[in-house]
Structures are given as structure tokens and as C-alpha cells.
Amino acid sequence: MKIKLTQFFAIFLAALFFVSCQKENTSKAPTIPPYETMVPGFGQFATQTKSVANQAASSSKANFLYSATSVGFWSSLIGTTFAVPIAAFKASFSQNPTKINDNTWEWTFTVDGFNGQYTARLVGEHLSANQIHWKMYISKTGTNAFSDFLWFEGTSDPNSTSGQWLLYQSPDHPDKAVQIDWEKATNDVGEIKYTYVRETDDQGNPLDPHGSYLIYGTQDSTFDTYVTTHHYSQQAQAFIDAFIEWNSTDYSGHVKSEDFFGDTDWHCWDSSGNDVDCSN
What we know:
Blueprint: H1 2-26, H2 42-54, H3 62-81, H4 83-92, E1 98-101, E2 104-111, E3 117-128, E4 131-141, E5 146-156, E6 162-168, E7 176-185, E8 188-196, E9 213-218, E10 225-233, E11 238-246, E12 253-256, H5 258-261, E13 267-269, E14 275-276
């Protein structure tokens, strides 16, 4: 009987410790996942296209321009379609949250830099000790006003080592548009996959880019940034694949795309965007 009583108290204390830890984990404001989980560094690469294209063409720049164009679709979405919710996400890091209940916290603030007055409300809820649910609601006053539109939502673990975002098209067309799956390695975002999940346009017509994806990551190499794209080509009227690597400092790099180049070789460019021999 004494042994059974001891065992009972051991189990009771273990259960009490578990519940206590769980309560402690969920009673604190969750950590917002890093900004880079939604906006990684390939946008800076794509913006080099214009400056390179405007330079005097002493030689071909086809390899660089094709690579930058391959990621341009995604940079355009971030910079235009989702500019407001992404700006709101970035602004949330400088705000202090308000506790709604033991499991839910809220960040409320205005979003500057756009025509109109926007108010954002980011909600973080502990679904369990291992998962946090995020929702970004945005309101606008004035012309084309809307209220509490859920512009994106997602999940993450408490340590922000992995998660997912789901972005919706717009207040007028609240379709699922882009899914972002991300993993974090050490202090850097390890790998991100963007998938275009919107099926029809504003008029209900099928969208050719539906199913396109881009995978972005970093690696320990001279070309320390890589991208894999599966995107729809209007010219080819088909999906084509490209594998791109570049240096994040000088933007030199190389690209491989059998669909575009007709071979499986790497095609290189230098820091000025000029095509160069990959053996150099």
C-alpha cells in the first residue's frame, strides 16, 4: 500500500508540473515569427533587373535577366497585391501586445505609407503548447472602406522554427491566393516555399499561374542564395522549371533550365549582369 501511495504522488506531481509548464507557456505573449518568413531576400535580386537592363549592353545579359524575370512574379505580388498586409506585418514588431485571455494576445496599430487610413489587428492564439495561430485583420476608412478583413493567417511553433502563412487576395475577392511554408535554421530562415493557390481571377476565369511555386533558401557557398521556380510561361504556354543560385553581395550567379536553354548546363553572369563562361 505504501508503494502504491508513493507512485500515486509521483504521478500527481508529474501531472501538476506538466499543467503548470503548459499554463506558463500559454500565459505569455507569443513571439511573432520573423519578417523574413513572409518576405525573404529574393526581392532585392529581382529589383536589380531594371538597373541591369538600363546599362549599355556591351554583351548579352540574357542569363541574369531570365533569372530575375523568373522570380519577378513573386516580387510583384509582394510589392503590389500584398503591400498593405506585409507592411502591417512589418509594423507589428514594434508594437506592444494586449492580453485578451490566457491564450490570446492582440497587437493593434495603424499602417502608414498608403493612400487611405489603415488599421491593423494581429491576433496570436496559443492553440496548444506546440502551436500558435496567427490572424491579421485590416480595416480601411474613407474611399473603398472595409472592416476587419482577414488578409492573412498562419501557424507557427513557439520557437518560430517552422510554420505556414496563407494570404488572401483582397477585401473584394477574399480568395486563397498564396501559401507560404517556411522553416528556420539557427538564426536564419532555412527555406521558404511560396505556392500560388488562387484558382480563378476576379471575373472567375481560370488562372494559368495556379500551381506555380518558388523555393528560396540560403547555403554555405560562393553563390549563397538559391531559388527553384516552377512557373507558367505565357510564351511557352506551359510550366517551366529553373534552378538559380547567386551571390547576395554582388549578385553574380548562374542558372540552369532545360526548358528554357534546351540543355542541363549552368549559364552564368558576372556582377554586372553580363553573360560569362561558367568555367572562369
